[in-house]
Amino acid sequence: MKSTVLTAFLALSALAPLTSAAQEDKPIKALLVIGGCCHDYKTQQKIITEGVSQRANVEWTIAYDPDTGTSHKNPVYDNPDWAKGFDVVVHDECSAGVVDVPFIEQRVLKPHKDGLPAVVLHCGEHCYRSEGFPKDTPWFQFTGVGSTGHGAQLPIATTFVDKEHAITRGLAEMGRLADRKGGQPLTLAGLAGLGDLVLTCTGDLSRNRQVGMALARGESTVEILANLGHVAEGVGTARTARALAQRLGVDMPITREVAAVLFDGKPAGAALTDLLARDVRPERA
Q1: Burial code of 94-123, b = ≥16 C-beta within 10 A, e = fewer?
Q2: Do residues 54 and 86 touch, judged by C-beta distance below 8 A?
Q3: Do 68 and 137 lie in a common domain?
């Protein structure tokens, strides 16, 4: 369930207005279409909406269908203008048995074909199994994923092969901070933890990586941010994470050195030298 909330949060956050203070205060108006077979949607509707709203400015309308079958159409679709007034629709329905193509195309999908954004969660990926299933259906064309089902949620075993790699060491110190705050380090193995870390270390499209490469060329933080043209979230996060680690007594050497380069004028080469000169110790120590 945490992964479902995270997916919804990331998708909705991408829609948040960024152009002015007035726009930032305006909530995203989201419709959650939820219900159907196989899962506890009565509980999910509360977890998803409350979880996302704790992290993003979202105003929810919930269209919950208590029917537990696969062939029942959510009553929200009875209204031809069901999507009017919303900024985004979150589809979390399990309606695999609804196979009426005109209904799917002209009622469910029409607002999205007209440009309304959507977030599709969980069983919503393999809904509306009309003619063409399992290869190609109007719903699959919409989602871009030909999903036919999912198995049980199982633990993911993680093995660190290269313990000296920057990604491995970075994930380890993030895990120490999560552990000190009472969290589970495995939570950081998702998109918002390991995903961001891998992209920063390897992807040239990463804004955080662009900042890091510019720092390595000797440019100042002020100069880099002025020329970037976008927000690099890692810049402010580095200072906050360093302060939190110091307050909690958590050793986060990479975070500490990155913040020193960003905000204290420390040369990148000196930061790298200090990192490499550290004594070898267990990462969980």
Answers
A1: bbbebbeeeebbebbbebeeeebbbbbbbb
A2: no
A3: yes
Exposed / middle / buried, residue 181 (Cβ in 10 Å: 0-12, 13-18, 19+): exposed
- Check whether residue 112 and residue 12 sit in a common domain: yes
* Nearest alpha carbon to residue 128 among 162, 145, 104, 152: 104
In the chain, the amino acid numbered 91 is H
- 37 and 133 in a single domain? The answer is yes
Model's pTM, two decimal places? Answer: 0.54
Statement to judge: residues 137 and 53 lie in one domain:
yes
Q: Which two tokens stand for residue 155?
A: 């633990």
- Distance CA(91)–CA(77), nearest Å, equals 12
Whether 216 is covered by a domain: the verdict is: yes
Q: By the 8 A CB rule, do 214 and 224 touch?
A: yes
- Per-residue pLDDT 10s for the chain (285 aa) are 444 444 554 555 544 443 334 455 789 999 999 999 989 999 999 999 998 998 889 999 999 999 999 999 999 999 999 999 999 999 999 999 999 999 999 999 999 999 999 999 988 998 999 999 998 999 999 998 888 877 776 666 666 666 777 788 888 899 999 999 998 888 888 877 888 888 888 888 899 999 999 998 989 999 999 998 888 989 999 999 999 999 999 999 999 999 999 999 999 999 989 988 888 777 665
Residues present in the chain in total: 285
Do 9 and 55 contact (CB within 8 A), yes or no?
yes
In a domain, 161, yes or no: no
* 108 found inside a domain: yes
Amino acid at 111: P
Which structural domain range is residue 262 located in? 166-276
Instruction: Provide the 10 A C-beta neighbour count for residue 50.
Output: 11
Contacts of 116 (CB under 8 A, 6+ apart): 83, 86, 88, 89
